[in-house]
């Protein structure tokens, strides 16, 4: 009953998140050097990026484990953790100090994968429950 498309999406999303993390970190460093980045906002932006990375590792682990063991608990918990990741992604898309066009593109792709993944998770959970 485990979902192969969902498992493939976990793998692709894991690889993409490494790119996302490094690109966002590089852009924060770039913005702090090029623009007049307020010192009060640099540490919170970096902290939120690292919190997002921790949530992402946990989310991908629980989602993959839940899918492979066909248990709805870890998969549902992964879905709940995704809410925090989505909020942080929206923060980096809309509310951070400076938003570059590259920020918009990489966050839009991340949110698109989150949306697709959530649909596949709900379908997988429904299959496991029935």
UniProtKB/TrEMBL annotation:
CC annotations in GO: ciliary transition zone; membrane
Subcellular location: Cell projection, Cilium; Membrane
Pfam (any one): Transmemb_17
Main location per the UniProt record: other
Keyword presence, Nucleus: no
TM segment ranges: 9-30, 42-62, 74-98, 104-129
Signal peptide region: none
InterPro entries: Uncharacterised_TM-17
Keywords: Cell projection, Membrane, Transmembrane, Transmembrane helix
GO term, biological process aspect, one: non-motile cilium assembly
Membrane topology, from the record: Multi-pass membrane protein
PANTHER family, A to Z: GEO07735P1-RELATED-RELATED, TRANSMEMBRANE PROTEIN 80
Protein name per Swiss-Prot or TrEMBL: TMM80 protein
């Amino acid at each position: 009953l485990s979902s192969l498309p969902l498992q493939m999406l976990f793998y692709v999303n894991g690889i993409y998140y490494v790119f996302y993390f490094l690109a966002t970190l590089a852009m924060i460093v770039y913005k702090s050097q090029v623009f007049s980045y307020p010192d009060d906002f640099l540490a919170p932006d970096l902290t939120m990026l690292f919190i997002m990375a921790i949530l992402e590792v946990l989310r991908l682990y629980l989602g993959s484990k839940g899918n492979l063991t066909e248990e709805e608990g870890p998969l549902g918990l992964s879905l709940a953790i995704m809410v925090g990741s989505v909020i942080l992604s929206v923060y980096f898309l809309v509310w951070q100090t400076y938003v570059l066009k590259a920020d918009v593109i990489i966050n839009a792709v991340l949110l698109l994968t989150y949306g697709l993944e959530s649909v596949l998770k709900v379908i997988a959970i429904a299959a496991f429950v029935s």
